[in-house]
Amino acid sequence: MNSHVKTDLAPIPFIDVAAQRARLGTRIDEAVKRVLDHCRFVNGPEVVELEQKLAAFAGAKHAVACASGTDALAMILMAWGVKPGDAVFCPAFTFCATAEVVPWVGATPVFVDVLEDTFNIDPASLEAGIKVAKAKGLTPKVVIPVDLFGQPADMDAIGAIATANGLKVLCDTAQGFGATWNGRRTGSFGDATATSFFPAKPLGCFGDGGAVFTDDDDLVPVLKSVREHGQGVDKYENVRIGMTGRLDTMQAAILLEKITIFEDEIAARQRAAERYNAALKDVCIVPTLDPRATSVWAQYTIRLPHGVRDGLAAALQKEGVPTAVYYRIPMHRQPAYAEYPSAGNGLPVCERLAGEVISLPMHAYLDEASQDRVIAAVRRALGA
């Protein structure tokens, strides 16, 4: 590492929620006030309006708002009746929520490897995982492709494998909502899609929130029942096991304001990613975008040789530049998940990436001066 530069400049935000808040100005305050005035804090009119706007944005027939991205994943598995003995295939290079919901319903997560260039699920490893599941006496039931760091997974290949093996496709677009694959937005693929509105996401609220997207008319009433304690004709008739998975009306009101500027923010993220790529491609491995995809750049993640990352992070911290690592430990190596099966021989790409990746500041309000500070600091630290 070749960084000895010190700076008195203010630290650069990793994700700048405050800049977006300033842009929207009084609109957020007014939206919250409307909820405070009508006092319908649970299942208020803003929730239904948001569901309609989300579905229209994604190109899906239906959107069902819920309390978090994790609840969205769980609601789908519960609505489909996934159960003990079923295998659910997940990439091992993801946040724990993707796999966490599978044992909740008694099913078995089977971890598969990812592609080195896009970080997303490897179709060949998925096929290997299906063979492993069958050999263990499990019933292959669902695959959960993840749109990691903002880029959609290869829905062409995954869809074909799912069709050939009778799998349902539950897309996890918690990091990829707003991106496209072959010109179609995420939320319009597979049998159902889960997303998150956690504040750090490209479209985030001011707390927890999520949504399910589907074109399946019959699934929607089941999802809504699961979301409300498994209720039937009213809340005191329980026809299935459910949860409390409602989206708070206040968060829906906030998201209604944020979605109006979302496309502009996606474009700004793309410009920032292009500037990073151009400035850093000679000193590290920059992200690769599949030509069939667009990304919302939930994270801007570079790769470095093993043993370099921590020194870079320390050097950047001294210059007021934050970094993060997603993910140091792949799911199949996490203590809570070590007992579950994996495809192939140790998921070598996941293992390698876990020691190479580091994410730089990325958001829609990353101005060129701040980004140039990041770029210069990275290049200094890497001796370029």
Automatic annotation (TrEMBL):
Keywords: Aminotransferase, Pyridoxal phosphate, Transferase. InterPro entries: DegT/StrS_aminotransferase, PyrdxlP-dep_Trfase, PyrdxlP-dep_Trfase_major, PyrdxlP-dep_Trfase_small. Gene3D superfamilies: Aspartate Aminotransferase, domain 1, Type I PLP-dependent aspartate aminotransferase-like (Major domain). Its EC number is 2.6.1.98. The keyword Transferase applies. GO terms for biological process: polysaccharide biosynthetic process. One of its GO terms (molecular function) is pyridoxal phosphate binding. This is UDP-2-acetamido-2-deoxy-3-oxo-D-glucuronate aminotransferase. It comes from Starkeya nomas. The gene is wbpE.
